[in-house]
Amino acid sequence: MVRIKALLAFVLVVLLLVAPLNLSPRVRAGDINNPEIVDTEGDSISGKTSHDILWAFMGYETNDTFAAVMGMKTLDTFTDPSQIQTVPVSTYEFYFTIKAVNYAATASVPVHGPFGIDIRFALNTVEYNGTTPSNETNKASITGRYDAAHGIINMTVTKSSVGGVDPGNRATNLWCGIYSKQRSGGVTMTTPVLQDRAPDNGYGGEFIFVGSPEGQIVVLEVATSSSQMQNITAFTTLKFDLAVFNNGTNTVTIGMRNSTVDPKFNVSFSPLSTTLERGRTANITMAVKIKDLRTTKDGDSTTFTVWAETNLGNSTNPKMVKSDNSIIFTVRASIATTPVKPPTGTAKLFDDLSKFFKNNKNTVIGLVVLLIVLAVVLVVYSKLGRGKKDEEFGDLQVHEKHPKKKDKEKEEAED
Fold this sequence. Notes:
7-stranded antiparallel β-sheet
């Protein structure tokens, strides 16, 4: 139990550190693994482990009821016989507020066990003097369970007894206290003494009603620790830190979305989607960069809105639910001091050719066709010329079959 308590305390501290300050009060999960209230172990005034609150939560909601549950290090199986003469009474109280009315679910544990008095459960309305209860009035009887084997007191409250609740209503100002009193001479009882308060100061998380065991309330809250107006230079990527808190009642899969941006810019998110448990925060990185440096001028800007959403339906019949809030960002191009470097050398030649081909498509096609025609004409002409020369060369061979012999006879005749 000590390790569980330490782990719960560590998780609570981490949540408080990483959660953005501008989000609303946290709605805890409403179960033993994620209680709305966590308290320091070993801080009861009496030193009794049965007076030492470890955690508490609201949960187990049905159509008509909900439960207020307190967990102690131990609970007395029965009253210590040595204390029976003082008639000790321990009262365990779970405080909460619904629709501006303050309540306390209470378990009064007098002398109990063998031959003891039964434990009594009740719902009281509470008046405060500042943050201290000053008066409690019985409102209704409730049912409860005193589980000494596990150190748990579970009190079931009907929704009608707190004026009825609707889906989305919240129980706020959650805290717990254990009081003790006993007889001090005669039949006079001492003033109840607060033995332990959980949390030590302030309140725990809020509880949100969903209406039924199958009900679900989606509350997504988006925040950022980054500046919402930034300049972007060439060849750089701006990164913005976003946080999405699941302030609803169920685990959901969320995705980040943004409104239309100027085509010169590009917006992306990492991760694209993530599964987010209730009462947890997801950290998202948004990246913005200039998409086309050739068409972007110094001072060009884009303003867009970012939000989170989840699909409560399916791919065939989607039911998209957006976050309760959104954030507006503005990005401005600052590229006067970082112009695009013009290509040189071979790169310039290819760049010029590329631009020429792009801007003179019809001319290029005409030139290619003309070159093909010229090539065909040259080939045909070459073949025709070669055939004519072959015929002439053949005639020469017939008429001048022995030219060297004729030349010799001519020389002899001259001699």
